User: What shape does this take?
Amino acid sequence: MTTANVSAINNYIDGIIHRLDSTGYKPLSTPIGGKMKPANDNSGDLLLGASAIAGHLGITPRQTYRLIYDGLLPHFKLGGFIAARRSSLTKWLEEQEVAA
Assistant: This one.
């Protein structure tokens, strides 16, 4: 992922946070021991971008796009980016292995 992409994502998130702050929204997370506890258990499970997904699967980004285009790879869109969960991809790989 390029620096421009990371910057664009950070700006997008900052805009969302600003809009939420203006509505009086309070996050569900609470500080514990000086650190924020995530409101979910997705830490480390999210892969953002075809390159990250490809790296996890051991294939090229082009092959990743092809699998997505053919409707074979579990994925979703997140802010205009292709994303997938490691756990979903692992389950999908196991299913492909059994079917082979």
